[in-house]
């Protein structure tokens, strides 16, 4: 049970992540992370407990710090399933949800956290840690232990339960995160004699031996996926703000003339963060000219040339939640007739697909993708691609999918079926693209052009909300901003979750 009173302590806690007591400008009272309350995190764990059978454990290892080389580390990225259930954003930790055998009430679940102990010497180098006491007092863990105590703690739990829910190898899409933790905690559990990770069956067998009794291991991520795919009002509020900040950054970019991909890249990242986001949601694509034919072009090291377009796929992350935007516009601010023709053809497709993004239409993502291919085929024929067939469009000119779920991960909930009908509260991207190779099969005036237009859409029963609506995409609007600039002052754009 959630113990709200725990946060009414007298002692001042040091914490390894923003909390109200240390960063009140980022996290407000009652919230654990920006915009998400302690009560919402409790209800997420409760919903998971409702899906677990009595007499079971759900084990969620967190991520570790990753290193580029030597002692040069990457920015820490938590296992998003663990973050979703706990709000905990420090490395080398484990969450366990225990559903006791003797109770029919999921409210009686027990929330365990194993976290690094406070350590002044380590903290001098790596920063503050919340520690075992803090994870109980601040993050409402019913049981807190140090990671050093965790092997014995888990051993005792495994002796009590036969049904274990745990993703071998990180089934949520975060490959290796779960295995990496157990490699450190239980080397004999997940490594064979050649120090290579074993397969799922061998891991299950060695876990049985470790616990000295038989138990079954069931995958966990699909249970959490069913929760994560539907966003709460609080989540939608954060994602709307991330989209708003990111969209405004694009408008600021339209108003400038950049000489290089690198310059545009750095400008957008600066605007995301100065506007209120925490960081970029992913490494940006900034593809000038024919580089846009490469869907995931990330070199971003060429010059931008007059008369060509630039395709950008970039957005900010706020409170752990991602925006995802793609826009394509002329480097000099004015579309040529051929650029405008191809761009408008694609925009017509995107507009139509967004109109279809509502529960009442009964569509799945697969339905929307198939419709987008058919619509683009018609548009291209009208633009001069005589007799082009849908299969050619899908294979050569539009080889990627219409979109994906969005949330804590850019490609959120990858286990969720694309054949499932859209649901209220789901957030999906709508990102048709068209990429015309330098091939004589295609009209000369379009060759070398690559265009993608992407927005984030929150699904409603008979409507939807475009979370990234601020990013201009109509030709007239882009050219107007490029010519006249953006009148909104930068300081007026710095907003936070609590101002909405």
TrEMBL record:
Family indicated by similarity: Belongs to the peptidase M24B family.
Cofactor entry: Mn(2+)
Keywords (A to Z) from UniProt: Hydrolase, Manganese, Metal-binding
CDD domains in alphabetical order: Prolidase (cd01087)
BP-aspect Gene Ontology terms: proteolysis
Domain (Aminopeptidase P N-terminal) ranges: 36-175
InterPro entries documented for this protein: Aminopep_P_N, Creatin/AminoP/Spt16_N, Creatinase/aminopeptidase-like, Pept_M24, Peptidase_M24B_aminopep-P_CS, X-Pro_dipept-like
Assigned GO CC terms: mitochondrion
Tree of life domain: Eukaryota
Membrane spanning residue stretches: none
GO molecular function: manganese ion binding; metalloaminopeptidase activity
Alphabetical list of Pfam families matching this protein: AMP_N (PF05195), Peptidase_M24 (PF00557)
Protein name, per record: Aminopeptidase P N-terminal domain-containing protein
Gene3D superfamilies for the chain: Creatinase/methionine aminopeptidase superfamily, Creatinase/prolidase N-terminal domain
């Amino acid at each position: 049970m959630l113990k709200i009173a725990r946060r009414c302590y007298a002692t001042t806690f040091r914490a390894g992540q923003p909390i109200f007591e240390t960063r009140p400008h980022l996290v407000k009272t009652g919230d654990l992370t920006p915009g998400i309350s302690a009560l919402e995190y409790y209800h997420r764990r409760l919903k998971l407990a409702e899906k677990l059978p009595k007499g079971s454990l759900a084990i969620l290892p967190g991520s570790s710090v990753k290193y580029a080389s030597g002692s040069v580390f990457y920015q820490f990225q938590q296992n998003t399933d663990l973050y979703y259930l706990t709000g905990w954003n420090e490395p080398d930790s484990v969450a366990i949800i225990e559903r006791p055998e003797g109770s029919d009430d999921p409210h009686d679940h027990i929330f365990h956290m194993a976290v690094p102990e406070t350590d002044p010497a380590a903290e001098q180098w790596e920063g503050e840690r919340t520690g075992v006491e803090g994870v109980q007092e601040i993050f409402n863990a019913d049981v807190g232990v140090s990671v050093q105590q965790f092997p014995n703690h888990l051993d005792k739990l495994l002796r009590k339960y036969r049904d274990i829910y745990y993703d071998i190898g990180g089934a949520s899409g975060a490959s290796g995160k779960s295995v990496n933790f157990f490699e450190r905690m239980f080397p004999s559990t997940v490594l064979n004699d050649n120090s290579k990770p074993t397969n799922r069956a061998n891991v299950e067998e060695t876990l049985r031996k470790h616990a000295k009794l038989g138990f079954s291991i069931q995958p966990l991520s699909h249970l959490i996926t069913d929760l994560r795919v539907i966003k709460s009002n609080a989540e939608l509020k954060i994602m709307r703000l991330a989209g708003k900040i990111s969209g405004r950054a694009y408008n600021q970019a339209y108003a400038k003339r950049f000489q290089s991909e690198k310059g545009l890249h750095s400008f957008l990242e600066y605007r995301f963060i100065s506007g209120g986001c925490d960081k970029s949601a992913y490494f940006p694509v900034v593809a000038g000219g024919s580089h846009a034919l490469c869907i995931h072009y990330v070199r971003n090291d060429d010059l931008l040339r007059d008369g060509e377009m630039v395709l950008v796929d970039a957005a900010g992350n706020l409170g752990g939640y991602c925006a995802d935007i793609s826009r394509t516009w002329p480097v000099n601010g004015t579309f040529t007739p051929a650029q405008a023709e191809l761009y408008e053809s694609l925009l017509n497709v995107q507009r139509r697909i967004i109109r279809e993004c509502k529960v009442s239409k009964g569509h799945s993502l697969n339905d929307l993708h198939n419709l987008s291919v058919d619509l683009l085929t018609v548009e291209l024929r009208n633009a001069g691609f005589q007799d082009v067939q849908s299969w050619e469009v899908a294979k050569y000119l539009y080889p990627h999918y219409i979109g994906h779920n969005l949330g804590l991960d850019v490609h959120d909930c990858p286990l969720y079926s694309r054949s499932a009908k859209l649901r209220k509260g789901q957030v999906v991207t709508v990102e048709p693209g068209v990429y015309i190779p330098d091939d004589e099969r295609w009209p000369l005036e379009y060759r070398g052009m690559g265009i993608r237009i992407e927005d984030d859409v929150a699904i409603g029963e008979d409507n939807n909300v475009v979370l990234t609506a601020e990013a201009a995409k109509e030709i007239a609007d882009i050219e107007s901003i490029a010519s006249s600039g953006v009148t909104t002052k930068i300081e007026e754009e710095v907003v936070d979750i609590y101002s909405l």
